[in-house]
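step=predict obj=Probable nicotinate-nucleotide adenylyltransferase n=215
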Amino acid sequence: MDKSLLAWYGGTFDPIHFGHIKPVEALAQRVGLKKVVIMPNNVPPHRPQPKANSAQRKAMIEAAIQGNPLFELDDRELQREMPSWTADTMETLRAEQGATQPLGFIIGQDSLLTFQTWHRYADILACCHLLVCRRPGYALTMPDARQQRWLEQHLATDIAELHSQPAGKIFLAETPLLNISATVIRQRLEQGQPCDDLVPAPVMAYITHHGLYRQ
């Protein structure tokens, strides 16, 4: 049985864009990921509700990853009416995959800096490794000495640890710094400005066809 690292990547993806895709492709190459499962959430607990509905965001992700063997889509959180807590989802995935399968959860550096405010954050790390992509404009050290010690206690210095241990490590990946945000994309689309340099062409075609983010 293949026990190499499996990774999930959550978010609202409203819409999915190159800032989501390209750093994760670089991360996958860096750590030897064969598969990244994109898992859009339905009701994010920490942020405003998405502009595009669940079916639209799912369709845009499918358009973005079509023909890319690295990615697949897990739409389980889109089926939920209640808020999606990462801790609950990762515990479910751990139960599905078994106790010894190495699991990863991909986040950005911005999320790492606030990770200890997340609901049951210690339980998340008990279920999986954190695979962290760099984000432009965010510090590479934690907000205070206590959190920095916590980070250093869990840091993976050897990629092999991510594949040999089921959970508990944090890997800081050198990934492309792409200053792209879904907020800026939505603002540009509202103003009728082009976003072809920010969004994959099939996603842009879907947005145009359905008139998304126009107001």
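step=describe
Residues 207 and 213 are 8 Å apart (CA to CA).
step=end
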